[in-house]
Amino acid sequence: MAKGRRADWTPRGPANPQADMLGKLQKIQEEMRKTQEELENEIINVTAAGGAITIAITGHQRLQSIKIDPSLVDPNDTGMLEDALVAAVNEAILASQTHSAQRLEAITGGLNIPGLM
User: Fold this and answer.
1) Number of folded domains that form the chain
2) At what angle do helices 78-108 and 17-41 cross, to 10 degrees?
3) Contacts of 14 by beta carbon, 8 Å cutoff, 6+ apart
4) Residues 108, 32 contacting (CB under 8 angstroms)
5) How much is the pLDDT for 59?
6) Can you give the pLDDT at residue 5?
7) What is the CATH number of the domain that holds 65?
8) Residues near 59 by Cβ (< 8 Å), separated by ≥ 6?
9) Residue 97 burial by CB count (10 A; 0-12/13-18/19+): exposed, middle or buried?
10) Residue 61 falls within a domain, yes or no?
């Protein structure tokens, strides 16, 4: 035993801080990969146009379905339907992106680490 040390003394902190950090980064990467896979199957439902349009979209921004209330369909005003669809799809994409960002941020704690995303 070294002179002046207690018999029960142990060093504090990791023996190799770089290896400890690498292990943490690998764990984060694995959690990110798993979450990305889960997001592919998670469905976000968004309603728009006063509830007349319902869109289902995945966490990977893939449209699954679009439902339109028949009362919104006017053969004499297709422009209104087109505009409503564009707005609804954009709203669904934004909702999906926000959902995905929140899920991934929960893993990284808001860190912006290149190569993890």
Assistant:
1) 1
2) 150
3) 20
4) yes
5) 92
6) 64
7) 3.30.1310.10
8) 38, 39, 40, 41, 42, 44, 96, 99, 100, 103
9) middle
10) yes
Helix (H, G, I), strand (E, B) or coil at 53: strand
Closest CA to 97 of 66, 57, 65, 49: 57
Parent domain of 40 = 31-108
- The sheet carrying 53-58 orders its strands as 43-48, 53-58, 63-68
| 44: its two tokens | 């976000």
What is the per-residue pLDDT for 1?
53
Q: Tell me, yes or no, whether 117 lies in a domain.
A: no
Residues 65, 45: contact at Cβ < 8 Å?
Answer: no
Q: What percent of the chain has pLDDT over 90?
A: 55
Rounded CA separation 74/80 (Å): 8
The 10 Å Cβ neighbour count of residue 75 is 6
Task: Let me know if 82 is exposed, middle or buried by CB neighbors in 10 A (0-12, 13-18, 19+).
Answer: exposed
Which pair of tokens denotes residue 80? 């209104």
